[in-house]
Design goal:
This protein is α+β, with helices and mostly antiparallel strands and about 170 residues long. It has 3 helices and 9 strands. It has helices at about 5-10, 140-145, 160-165; strands at about 35-45, 50-55, 65-70, 85-90, 95-100, 100-105, 110-115, 120-125, 130-135. The protein has a 6-stranded antiparallel β-sheet with strand order 1-2-3-9-4-7, with no helix packed on it. A 3-stranded antiparallel β-sheet has the order 6-5-8, with no helix packed on it. A hairpin with a 4-residue loop joins strand 1 and strand 2. The longest helix has 10 residues, at about 5-10. The chain is globular, with a radius of gyration of 17 Å. The two termini are about 30 Å apart.
Length: about 170
Amino acid sequence: MDLQSLLASVGSTRTSPPEPSACTWSLPAADSELAQSHYANKNGKLGIDFQVRKLPFQGLQVMDPRLVTIAPGACNEKHRHAHESIFVLLSGEGEILIDNQTVPLEQGGVAYVPRWIVHQSRNSSSDAPLVLLAITDFGLTSAVLGDYDAKTRLKTGGTDAFAAAGRD
């Protein structure tokens, strides 16, 4: 799909405003069925233990908000992707590796990860989960590039997606 077709499609899909209840979400709802499970990975050898849930906003065309929960003392895998990401630490203690810099985050802290930059989130606490709100433009990026996300994450069983592709 070329850019003009994509813009025409996105511009013509919304004809009426959504119900106000479809436009709000709050942290207590995070543990309910409202946030749909999207992706999880656990690899004790590598210290990976996390879950990603999509937030239930109907009709989003560009943004893709997700709730990332990382177990105490664990992390998600090092990965990169074509979409930009903004992370907001909602609860817990953590840090984000962005390229070769580790950025500590406090509750309410915000971090930005540009496209194609290797990053990883880590829970600094040994007893409480880390909860991050991840806001991305995955919807738009995947509409243009297709399903690229699965190719850029750590593969099942611990094989690094970059090493498998001959890149470090």
